[in-house]
Design goal:
The chain is an alpha+beta fold and about 300 residues long. Among the domains are: about 35 residues, no CATH class; about 140 residues, no CATH class. The chain is about 60% helix and about 15% strand. The strands form two sheets. It has a four-stranded mixed β-sheet with strand order 1-2-4-3, with helices on one face. β3, α1 and β4 form a beta-alpha-beta unit. α4 runs antiparallel to α7. It is elongated.
């Protein structure tokens, strides 16, 4: 099963009797499922059905859907009588004010934008509504197919990032001995300072324990590799994993930060771990940018 991006577009056109319909939908990333439906008037029941369909087939994303209906024949034409009345009234008032004589051309009025339009209400015909419902289901499937195709490209990119993270973590493990040696030298130097100053033995033990606690990055290495393995498993698991992937990347970033804090100020080969830690953070951040668009 493949992951799905939250970015996609789909369109379906069809005809039922004398009614032509066009469904268009586009989606972008969003924390939740956020539906914006532009439907003809008197579509309350149909809108409820649409929202139920989306919730069954999608989990996250900002989705904008538009349904346009066109009716063949004159019966499908509506006149904006309020707008026409306003034009006629304005024409007559201005004619009287300027003492002009002439008749209003109704054909000219009909050419004014907004006066004539196709009916904008949903027909009550049961068969048409059933056709539109089936078309909407097909549209969502197409949209999901496009989102899945985009998700395939994202998965390839994320898998590549995980490979790089794993390689850099393995390099950190090979340099772990250098870090331990650097910390050992620091502990010896600190102990020598304390002994010269005739420090309290308990103080020496406390200092040694504190420095020893910061001396090993093995725990961070193990946790990073565990998170990477879990991340790959989620990529194979597929749908509705975006939030889980993002959480894992936050955990990876925390381990990289801890690793950097343990190697700050060390000289010699240990400085290479700092470089690798920064590379880890960079790949993690780039992965998070990709995951923000995963459903």
């Amino acid at each position: 099963m493949s992951i799905r991006s939250m970015t996609g577009f789909a369109q379906i056109k069809g005809q039922h009797g004398r009614t032509a319909y066009t469904f268009a939908a586009k989606s972008v990333n969003h924390r939740f499922l956020d539906l914006h439906l532009r439907l003809p008037g008197r579509s309350e029941l149909f809108e409820q059905q649409l929202r139920k369909l989306f919730k069954e087939k999608m989990h996250r994303g900002h989705v904008e859907l538009t349904l346009t209906l066109e009716y063949a024949g004159a019966s499908g034409i509506s006149v904006n009588r309020e707008l026409v009345t306003g034009y006629v009234k304005a024409f007559r008032e201005l004619s009287d004010e300027l003492d002009l004589h002439g008749e209003l051309d109704l054909n000219a009025v009909f050419r004014i934008n907004g006066v004539l339009s196709a009916s904008s209400e949903m027909p009550e015909e049961a068969e048409l509504q059933a056709t539109l419902h089936a078309a909407a289901a097909e549209l969502i499937d197409q949209l999901n197919a496009n989102r899945r195709l985009e998700g395939d490209h994202t998965r390839v990119e994320l898998e590549s990032r995980m490979d790089q993270l794993e390689r850099n973590t393995a390099q950190v493990e090979t340099l772990r001995g250098a870090v331990l040696q650097a910390h050992l030298e620091r502990i010896r130097a600190r102990m020598a300072e304390l002994l010269e100053g005739q420090a309290d033995p308990d103080r020496i033990l406390q200092e040694a324990a504190m420095l020893a606690e910061r001396s090993d990055v093995q725990e961070e290495i193990v946790r990073l590799l565990t998170h990477i393995k879990h991340f790959r498993g989620l990529l194979q698991e597929g749908e509705d994993v975006g939030k889980k992937l993002d959480f894992l990347l936050q955990e990876m970033n925390r381990e990289a930060n801890t690793m950097l804090s343990k190697t700050t100020g060390l000289a010699g080969d240990a400085t290479r771990i700092t470089e690798l830690g920064l590379a880890l953070k960079s790949d993690i951040e780039k992965s998070r940018e990709q995951v923000q668009n995963v459903e």
